[in-house]
């Protein structure tokens, strides 16, 4: 059965409040697929992220405007840190405005649908464009995570100063996480030394080294659209001279524009499992962001060019499956806001006592991260991500994950921000033609594998999901993939 494909694009200008100067447009790109029996709309845009309830509201609005069943509408966020004031926790009125504009991209894609041929190109870019920001120091200190405070040395990020700064903070009378690095080292109340702190220290964990380029063209050879997939946080668009925040689509915007110049059609970008992956530059600025966006797509375009025209196969198979993942919450998750606020006070008391009693530095780190976790439970999950008190009491947060097969290529969408290990483990199980996608139809936070979560660090500290969560999510995704293969 022949599958038709269409792409559409609209500018989101007027639906958001800019943080600063708008350097380039924020877009909603849509792909519609239809085989006469089944159909789906994938929206791929430059927004930061959405809560699960927020994404559900948007999908319902889009369904009202387009006639698509909301169960077959998939909203993928690029988690753009240089996006704008597009609120994650939206109300019904905001959903009407945003959803109506996003629906326009779906309508344009519906009008553009035509029988398609499809090709997949995969490029291995190694460590040229990303780094895993988790580093285990030793058994006592566990993992340190940094999203700032490092320097680029070739294809590595040097975190020596950031690590030593974090140790100094933990040894001070006001210990806490220093995820952005330490500018001015505090006065310490004790000395701490370990062999791992001598010499230069680098991030050295595996990255997701693959760029996927999915290209669609019609029977006359004209490009309908393309999808680029890569895994690294979308950030770094600040003005490097004045340190001003600017609004930009980031490296995905440059990637889209590059592939549109090369192939025509409409370019779209989807974000892989990037929860612990940084782009490989220390200071932003337009040229560095541009070089990354164009660099990843140039590698994938070259891989496509090495294939002959037979790489484009008639698109004849469409299959979609959704599976519910019953995500387990931390057993210490407070059941309501009042108890969450009380948990913060207890954690603060325990941390102060540990500092006074000169507890081991590893113990101080765990207590400081627990206090931070209690604070973020209030800030992010009750107030932003949309966790309900019923979910907090039951310690279960049910979410849907989805998979869509186009011939033998699968788009696998996850309602979360998994790290690189989720992608690598799915790839080991199913091969390179699986395009794992984070923040699809909402976000419930970071996913850290059980063999890594107890060492702490930024992603583990800011996750409300228990140590079994990443496996639960990955197994649900694997079930969805198996249903469509």
In brief:
The chain has 485 residues and is α+β, with helices and mostly antiparallel strands. It has helices at residues 52-66, 92-112, 160-170, 250-263, 286-305, 337-356, 361-385, 389-394, 420-430, 450-453, 458-461, 469-484; strands at 4-11, 21-22, 27-34, 39-45, 73-77, 114-115, 117-124, 130-132, 134-138, 142-145, 151-153, 156-158, 210-217, 223-230, 246-247, 266-271, 277-279, 313-314, 318-328, 396-406, 409-413, 417-418, 434-437, 446-447.
Q: Segments where pLDDT lies below 50 for 5+ residues?
A: none
Overall morphology: globular
Percentage of residues in helical conformation: 25-40%
Q: What Rg, in angstroms, do the CA atoms define?
A: 22 Å
Structural class: alpha+beta
Give a count of the beta strands, DSSP E runs of length 2 or more: 24
The neighbouring-strand order within the major sheet is: 5-4-3-1-6
Mean pLDDT: 91
Separation of the first and last Cα atoms: 16 Å
Number of helical stretches of at least 4 residues: 12
- Biggest sheet architecture: 5 strands, mixed
- Number of self-contained structural domains: 3
């Amino acid at each position: 059965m022949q599958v038709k494909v269409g792409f559409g694009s609209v500018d989101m200008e007027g639906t958001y409040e800019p943080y600063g100067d708008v350097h380039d447009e924020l877009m909603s790109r849509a792909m519609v697929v239809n085989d006469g029996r089944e159909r789906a709309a994938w929206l791929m845009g430059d927004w930061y992220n959405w809560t699960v309830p927020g994404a559900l509201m948007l999908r319902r609005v889009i369904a009202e405007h387009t006639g698509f069943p909301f169960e077959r509408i998939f909203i993928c966020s690029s988690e753009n840190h240089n996006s704008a004031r597009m609120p994650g926790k939206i109300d019904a009125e905001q959903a009407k405005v945003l959803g109506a504009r996003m629906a326009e991209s779906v309508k344009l894609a519906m009008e553009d649908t035509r029988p398609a041929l499809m090709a997949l190109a995969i490029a291995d870019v190694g460590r040229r464009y990303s780094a895993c920001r988790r580093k285990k120091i030793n058994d006592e200190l566990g993992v340190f995570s940094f999203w700032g405070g490092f320097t680029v040395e070739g294809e590595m990020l040097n975190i020596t100063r950031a690590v030593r700064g974090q140790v100094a903070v933990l040894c001070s009378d006001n210990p806490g996480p220093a995820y952005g690095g330490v500018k001015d080292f505090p006065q310490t109340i004790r000395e701490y030394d370990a062999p791992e702190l001598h010499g230069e220290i680098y991030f050295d964990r595996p990255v997701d080294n693959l760029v996927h380029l999915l290209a669609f063209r019609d029977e006359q050879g004209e490009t309908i659209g393309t999808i680029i997939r890569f895994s690294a946080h979308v950030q770094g668009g600040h003005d490097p001279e004045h340190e001003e925040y600017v609004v930009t689509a980031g490296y995905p915007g440059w990637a889209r524009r590059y592939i549109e110049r090369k192939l025509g059609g409409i370019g779209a970008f989807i974000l892989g499992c990037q929860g612990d992956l940084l782009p490989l530059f220390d200071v932003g600025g337009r040229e560095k962001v541009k070089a990354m966006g164009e660099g990843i797509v140039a590698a994938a375009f070259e891989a496509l060019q090495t294939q002959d025209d037979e790489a484009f196969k008639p698109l004849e198979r469409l299959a979609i499956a959704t599976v519910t993942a019953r995500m387990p919450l931390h057993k210490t998750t407070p059941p309501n806001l009042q108890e969450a606020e009380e948990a913060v006070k207890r954690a603060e008391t325990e941390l102060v006592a540990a500092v006074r009693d000169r507890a081991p530095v590893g113990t101080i780190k765990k207590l400081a991260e627990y206090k931070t976790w209690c604070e973020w439970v209030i800030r992010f999950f009750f107030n932003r991500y949309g966790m309900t008190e019923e979910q907090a009491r039951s310690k279960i947060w049910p979410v849907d994950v989805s998979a869509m097969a186009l011939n033998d290529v699968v788009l696998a969408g996850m309602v979360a921000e998994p790290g690189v290990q989720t992608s690598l483990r799915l790839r080991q199980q199913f091969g390179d033609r699986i395009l794992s996608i984070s923040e699809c139809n909402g976000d419930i936070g970071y996913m850290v594998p059980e063999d890594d979560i107890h060492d702490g660090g930024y992603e583990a500290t800011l996750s409300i999901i228990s140590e079994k969560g990443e496996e639960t999510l990955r197994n649900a995704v694997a079930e969805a993939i198996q249903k469509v293969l």
